[in-house]
Amino acid sequence: MTNRTSWDAVVVGAGVGGLVAAGLLARSGRRVLLLEAHETPGGCAGFYEAGGFTFDAGATTLIGFDPGDPLATIAEALGIRLGEDLRLEPVDGVDVQLPGVSFFYGRDRPAWEKSAVRLFPGASSFFRRLRRDAALLWGASRSWPVLPLLSPRDAIRDLRLLSPRLLPLLPSFGKTVSDVLERERAPADPALRAFLDLALLISVQSPASAAPWWNGALGIDLFRRGVSRARGGMRAFAGALALAVERAGGEIRTRTLVTRLAPSSSGWVVKTASGEEFAARTVLPNLPVRDVARLLDPGTVPERTAASEHTRLGDGWGALVLNLGLSRVVNDDPRRLHRLVATRLDGHPGDGTSLFLSFSPPATPSRRREARRSRSRRTSKSSTWAPLRGEEYRRKKEEARLLLREALEREVPGLAAAVAYEDLGTPRTFQRYTRRSGGSVGGVRMTRGSFGLNALDPTLGAEGLHVVGDTAFPGQGTLAVAMSAALAAERLGAVRLERGGTLGFLAGGTR
Ligand SMILES: Cc1cc2nc3c(=O)[nH]c(=O)nc-3n(C[C@H](O)[C@H](O)[C@H](O)COP(=O)(O)OP(=O)(O)OC[C@H]3O[C@@H](n4cnc5c(N)ncnc54)[C@H](O)[C@@H]3O)c2cc1C
Asked: N or C: which end of the chain has fewer CB within 10 A?
């Protein structure tokens, strides 16, 4: 079956990256088709309904919505009115629980500075440097850096980042978070290292010893910087993006599995499981590069490049997510809605010693259902789940469920009696619902070898192909994948991303 309509751009995958790419291209006047395998949009930042509750599937928090920040700029460009089409509620910070130390890490700068001096004596210089560099890096992100440099044009474009204000960042180019700790003579305090590793793991997927400072400083700073939640959860966020695509004239087809991307004389042909074929001048797979490789003809340049880039960059982490629907509110302390918990100071990612807990915000009368959700997430190696079959899988899943329940009940006394619904998502679950190979959801682990100039070439060396999403620069998280989509729209000549955080649309054909 051939669908003879031809499109300026076909985007594959309606995760946040795909929705933003489709929205920006459609708004610039391109004819855009967005194909999504699942029944609803959102991907890892999507939602599902079960037991009478609506749960976030993966992401729960948003960042980058302060005025002038990239997500706020993108939302505005897509015609999403903040406060009306999408209501955001600020998250003050995160409650950190380590053996022997607990503290609140959040937006209130003087309060945090006082706590940091008391909690981590000797690390003041490190925290001062973190504050300064994170502020400079957030400022630089408003100039939309583009990486890796694919052409002299990219290099010239990035020259606008050069400003005397950014000079203090130069000495830390290529350094890791651990290098900066050492340079600032921070003490070898296991609690400080455990805290930084936790904050880094949920943001850039790498511990302090491997995370590049330019990326890691932003990751550590996340909870101090304008984190928010969408009222109505990720369903509201994904819904607002999908509506924006359609309002701009883009077409979204859900329940449509793409099985092949083949080059043609006029661009690309996108083939689906039901036998449809769509011709497009440009194709934008919003998928991990490993899954892009699987859609391309074996042996072709982009297929070989995608496969070798996957080998070079590796897989991200998998996640275990325990979602609970509760019969009553068990945590109404607004400062403890998000908690980072480690049960040991010498734990490692994936060994079950650390957790990220989120509770739905306190209820208003119209939002009682929303106020009764709790979730607990821990990192797990997706490769350990892949080979498990039948009883073996069920047993490992039950062990993981019990561990997470136990940890939650320790954190929230009285929780067990309030649980009305419960389910656990494993890397297998993510593989099934988001179709990410191996169920790995973490994007690229940020290291010196994968960041910046070493980031994935999103064109895979092919004309009319542009990978977006969390294996492309600048990485994982809803903010980063939205930026990857904006950068793709710029490379395709649809938008102009200006210094100072503006985004303008350009007329003309998609490259
Ligand atoms: C448990 C968890 C918690 C997280 N917490 C946060 C958080 O609090 N804040 C934050 O900012 N980020 C968070 N993240 C990260 C964030 O969710 C992801 O980085 C981001 O959503 C990835 O978006 P994406 O568009 O790149 O990819 P995806 O969300 O994976 O989207 C890809 C889409 O493509 C579709 N698809 C796949 N194959 C095909 C095919 N062949 N044909 C058609 N469609 C296809 C999938 O169904 C999916 O909808 C979290 C992630 C997880 C898993």
From this structure: N
Q: What is the pLDDT of residues 232-273, one digit of tens each?
A: 999 999 999 999 999 999 999 999 999 999 999 999 999 999
Would you say the CB of residue 36 lies under 6 angstroms from ligand 1? yes
Written as one letter, the residue type at 220 is I
What CA dihedral angle connects 464, 469, 475 and 481, to 10 degrees? 110
**What is the per-residue pLDDT for 2?**
54
Q: How far apart are CA 418 and CA 112, in angstroms?
A: 33
Q: Give the distance (Å) from ligand 1 centre to CA of residue 308.
A: 22
9-54: per-residue pLDDT in tens?
999 999 999 999 999 999 999 999 999 999 999 999 999 999 999 9
Among candidate residues 212, 287, 221, 159, the one with its CA nearest the CA of residue 451: 212
Rg (CA), the chain: 22
Ligand 1: which residue has its CA nearest to atom 53? 58
CB atoms within 10 A of CB 308: 13
CB of 434 closer than 6 angstroms to any ligand 1 atom: yes
Contacting residues for 134 by C-beta, under 8 A, at least 6 apart: 217, 218, 220, 221, 224, 225
Closest residue by Cα to atom 2, ligand 1, is 58
With bands split at pLDDT 50, 70 and 90, how would you rate the model's confidence at 332?
confident
Q: Are the C-beta atoms of residues 146 and 167 closer than 8 Å to each other? A: no
Spacing, Cα 231 to ligand 1 middle (Å): 19
- The overall average pLDDT reported for the chain is 91
What is the whole-number distance in angstroms between the Cα of residue 489 and the centre of ligand 1? 19
Sort 162 into a burial class: Cβ within 10 Å, 0-12 / 13-18 / 19+: exposed
Distance 183 CA to ligand 1 centre (A): 36
